[in-house]
TrEMBL record:
Residues 18-97, 129-217 form the DUF427 domain. This is Uncharacterized protein (DUF427 family). Signal peptide: none annotated. It comes from Paractinoplanes abujensis. Pfam families: NTP_transf_9 (PF04248).
């Protein structure tokens, strides 16, 4: 079984202008931010900005290196914090990605910062991909887009025409990925949220638009006649 271990954290300066907003108020604007490139139980990649680049008066209720953020008539508790594990981040603060809006240059970024070590390569292929759920074939395609993403199993994005869509129902689940966009999910009677698609991926990933992909971890995939092991990943 393939395993995908988590990489060690890296702290480095970023040349990107980083801004954070709460409502209509820019609470931080920095051209000297640091990137904490980390995937762990503590969180995902994020930017730390110097306290001098934080708008006066927006940090309140300081306690143990955490603050509420007050702006635009709102108060968000525990929405800013420091990290004392790294000397480079002394005097710097990061913010909640869920509660506030983040921008790299003039483009909004969702969920977490983009790691410069993280690649997403989508390639057209003619390999035969079959997908089975409890022994029933639910997809059979020779025109996949194969997506290779750092730290994750290889994914096979298939045209809907090559999928038994009569066996799938649209789910209410929606997720965001900073590297691909907003995903909509599909369920099978035997597997909830077994597959997903990107109706409108970010501009960097046009090849996966309106294709469907199944979780390798939850279904059985046969590639060119060879069954693949189910990988062990954060989605297992």
């Amino acid at each position: 079984m393939d395993e995908f271990p988590l990489p060690p954290p890296v702290v480095e300066p970023t040349p990107r202008r980083v801004r954070v907003r709460l409502g209509a108020t820019v609470v931080a604007d920095s051209r000297r931010a640091w990137l904490l490139d980390e995937i762990s139980s503590r969180g995902f990649p994020t930017y730390f900005v110097p306290l001098d680049d934080v708008r006066d008066g927006v940090l309140a209720d300081s306690a143990a290196g955490r603050w509420s953020v007050v702006a635009d008539g709102r108060r968000v508790a525990d929405a800013a914090w420091t990290d004392d594990r790294f000397s480079e981040l002394k005097g710097h603060v990061t913010f909640s990605w869920e509660a506030l809006d983040w921008y790299e240059e003039d483009e909004q970024v969702f969920v977490h910062a983009r790691s410069p070590r993280h690649r997403v390569d989508a390639l057209h292929s003619s390999r035969r991909v079959q997908v089975f759920i409890d022994g029933q074939e639910v997809a059979n395609s020779t025109r996949p887009v194969v997506l290779f993403e750092t730290g994750l199993p290889t994914r096979y994005y298939l045209p809907f025409a090559d999928v038994r869509t009569d066996l799938l129902t649209a789910s209410e689940t929606v997720t965001r990925c900073p590297y691909k966009g907003v995903a909509r999910y599909w369920s099978h009677p035997a597997r909830s949220d077994a597959a997903w698609s990107y109706p409108d991926p970010i501009p960097e990933q046009p090849k996966i638009r309106d294709l469907v992909c199944f979780y390798n971890e939850r279904v059985d995939i046969v590639l060119d006649g060879t069954p693949l092991d189910r990988p062990l990943s954060p989605f297992s």
